[in-house]
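Kindly draft a polypeptide, keeping tokens residue-aligned:

***
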Amino acid sequence: MNALRALEAVAARQPIGVGELARELGLPKSTVQRSLKTLHEAGWIRPAGGEVTRWQVTSKVLRLARTTELSLRDAAMPVMEELRQRTGETIHLMVPEGDAVVLIERLETDKPVRIVLPLGIRLPLHASANGKAVLAHLDRPLGELPAYTENTITDPAALRAELDRVRARGYADNRGEWRSDIAAVAAAVLGPSGPVASLSVSTPAGRMTETLRAEYGALVTEAAAALSRR
């Protein structure tokens, strides 16, 4: 388990040294050093070079991530299409990566006024519906919470309370917290070890009424549960 945590931390913070990694994980340096040795011998990480040894992931990790991403896309597409048909809005599929979620697939609305985000864009965990849907199922320190708009939740206690609400109702929402012109609802896709992705319904902020927010929230929660079962 420590080796897996170390691998995740290296991927999120690379290149990273053993001291910084030990502080990040809250583990003794000797424990982290053993985990890094195991990961290096297995070909998952390699030294980044320089006078002080810092570590980064290898192409083996990237190949595995690519294979997993393709499998996730294949499983998600019919679920996303059904969700688009039921809402008439843009559907996003995102995966967690460090302190962000990354957009890997989208199905756009036919409506002329729409939100278009490029594939590969990274959204902050604390300031997006997809991010909060994932963050609600992660046991990690919140760290810094930078403001993106006047609606961004930057107080850790307030965000903890928001994440409790997300878990209770099954979905997260975004009320102009990353960009003031975007509203969204999202639910986490859960695997055996926690969140592997999130699905969202995204609209221009002016189109997301409170009634639609609750309706879309229920639909995206149902869709994410269906994808989790797949």
Remarks:
- The CA atoms of residues 17 and 23 lie 10 Å apart.
